[in-house]
């Protein structure tokens, strides 16, 4: 399933808001999800290494 440009932007914003609301740093989030801050940052930018990375982060919140 492909997202529209509007959906991509909305998802990026949702990720940023949820991370800010959580009070977790990218390092903290990576530790909790057993990954690296780089993977988290790429997913937030909607350029995940693996397609499931975005879903894992989204489901965490």
Would you kindly provide a written description of the structure presented here, covering whatever features stand out?
By secondary structure, this protein is mostly helical. It is built from four helices and no strands. Helix 2 packs across helix 3. The two termini are 21 Å apart. The model has no long low-confidence stretch (mean pLDDT 91).
Task: Identify the overall geometry.
Answer: globular
Oligomer: single chain
Write down how many β-strands occur, each being a DSSP E stretch of 2 or more residues.
0
Mean pLDDT score, rounded? 91
- Taking the alpha carbons of the first and last residues, their distance comes to 21 Å
Structural class: mainly alpha
Helical content (DSSP H or I, runs of 4+): over 70%
Rg, Å, rounded: 11 Å
Largest sheet: none
Name the beta content range.
Answer: under 5%
Count every helix, treating DSSP H or I runs of 4 or more residues as helices.
4
The low-confidence parts are: none
Instruction: Give the H and E element order.
Output: HHHH
Quickly describe the structure.
With 61 residues, the protein is mainly α. Helices cover 70% and strands 0% of the residues.
Describe how the helices and strands are arranged:
Blueprint: H1 5-22, H2 26-32, H3 37-44, H4 51-60
Helix pairs in contact: 2-3
């Amino acid at each position: 399933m492909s997202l529209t440009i509007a959906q991509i932007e909305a998802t990026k914003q949702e990720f940023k808001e949820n991370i800010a609301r959580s009070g977790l740093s990218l390092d903290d989030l990576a530790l909790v999800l057993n990954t690296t801050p780089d993977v988290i940052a790429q997913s937030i930018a909607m350029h995940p290494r693996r397609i499931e990375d975005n879903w894992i982060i989204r489901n965490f919140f």
